[in-house]
Amino acid sequence: MRRVVVADDQPVVRQGLATIFGVPADFEVVGTAADGLELLDVISATRPDIAVVDVRMPRLDGIAATRQIARDYPQTRVIVLTTYDLDEYVYEALHAGASGFMLKDTPAERLVEGVRLVADGSMLLGPTVTRRLVADFARRETAHVPVQFDALTRREIQVVRALASGLSNAEIAAELTISEETVKSHVSEVLRKTGCRDRVQVVIAAYEAGLNQVAPPA
């Protein structure tokens, strides 16, 4: 069961999202919030798997809330809501610890699938958006803690480069001719060895290191 919290200051949007995520049998909406401070209270009380968070909210905005969630409730993954696919706030949200973002006008079935992916450890960034968004982000920002890729195996480097291209587990499995379970295992090892919180941080670090531009070691 994937436990979800929805935060949006617009009642119609908030209720609509709660309704969408309340339909699938494998989802449970455990709370809603109208602003960032209320969101933190709800997360403290319910400890959800996923928080779907609007960027622009009163009292405490989505970015500041995401930063606190990543720090205090690392088991809760955050998906930020935005109106535009290159909203300036998305860069800040990723830096704050969000595991991805989605547009408010995304069809319901795709919203549900996106939350499933993030709850299961993936990141919610399409290939085109990944290349545009993270490359630009990496040019703007520097990592607080440099990520070292030296300890990774050749296959793990290949997985990192595939992640940096925005590929899903299924697409990585097809490209490398391995199973999805093996991909998940490699990703887990990458996270462990690099100390990254999630795939988004791995991708950002890969761009910063220029790993997306070089061939994997022989």
Automatic annotation (TrEMBL):
Top-level taxon of the source organism: Bacteria
Which CDD domains does this chain map to? LuxR_C_like, REC_NarL-like
- Tell me where in this chain the PTM 4-aspartylphosphate is found: D54
* InterPro entries, A to Z: CheY-like_superfamily, NreC/VraR/RcsB-like_REC, Sig_transdc_resp-reg_C-effctor, Sig_transdc_resp-reg_receiver, Tscrpt_reg_LuxR_C, WalR-like
- TM segment ranges: none
The Response regulatory domain extends over 3-119
**Which segments constitute the HTH luxR-type domain?**
145-210
Q: Which Gene3D superfamilies match?
A: 3.40.50.2300
Under which name does UniProt file this protein? Answer: Response regulator transcription factor
Q: Keyword set for this entry?
A: DNA-binding, Phosphoprotein, Transcription, Transcription regulation
Does the keyword section mention Phosphoprotein? yes
